[in-house]
Every structure is written in C-alpha cells, then in structure tokens.
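HUMAN: Now follow token order:
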Amino acid sequence: MATVGEGLDKAVQGAFTRPIPKSAGAQMRYLVRQHKGSTKQVAQLLDITQRTVERYVKDQIKKPRPHLAARIEREVRRRWQPQVRAKAKQAAATTGGIMIDTRARFGFTAAPGSTDDARLRHLTLALPPRHAARLFDAQEAGATEQHLQQIAAEALGEVYFRDDGRRAHGLEVELTDLEHVEFDL
C-alpha cells in the first residue's frame, strides 16, 4: 500500500544533486560523520553492535544482510543533502506547488439528493503552494499517515472536486483505499 509520507520523501529525493554513497562502508562512514563520530549512536540507530559498525567503517565487512542494507540506505537517504531538501520544500511551498498522481477511492459528504457512493478514481493534478506547504509542515511536525491522507484529500477536494470554490459548495471529500500515490516537485 502506498503512503503519502513516503511519496513526499521520494519527491524531495528527486531534487538531490548527488547520488547517495553506494557501498555499505561509505554509507556507514557517512552515518558516523552525521552522528559526530559516534559509532555507538549509529549502532543504536541501526540496532546492531558497535563493533559491527566499526568493521563496516574499516571496510572489513563489505556486504550487509538485505534487511540491514535497507535500514542503512533508509537512514542515509533521510539525512542526505539537508540543504537541498530544504530548498526543494521551500520552493514547492512558496512558488511551485506540487504534482500529485493518485489512484484511490474517494467518498463524499454532500447535499441531499446527490450521490455519495465512493468511487475509484485516478487523478493527476497540480496542487497550489499552500497545499504543498500544509503537507510538508504536517510531515515535519510528525503527523500520522492518516492525517497526511486527510490533508491530501482536503487539497484534492478543493482543487479538483470544488474547482477552487467555483462549484460543489459544501462537498467534503474522503480518501480511502489508497492504491497509489506519487508526488513530483
């Protein structure tokens, strides 16, 4: 199942100017540098022993187990190029907005006499900067996936279904059964 938080992270990673380190040793050295030389903190972060971290740093171990390789890469991506990441978020939140491509079931709460049956829809549209800012701010504040989905549903409701206030006044959109979501800056 796709998540809004992961989609936002992937969109920001698209703005990176350099690729992340490839080898496990280089990734581990990067994490140690990010933790001010503390192999103990990196070991706690990755749930491995301090000695194992030291062996990766010295290239005594070159090939991590698959689940450990995924954890290392995830932590490196989370910390890679923070200034580039911040500039990309700032640009999306102030001038550029963000593109969303989603396939999900949308339900509605509307005036009596209209249909409120949920339907599966595939939408690709540009969200204005104010919606991008809300999504990024909520993500940085540690919002749950449910809250991020609610913000995305409100944005899609305003931009697509209510056409920025020109139609369907009072229509509330609910996003359920999220099959696919992708963002682009």
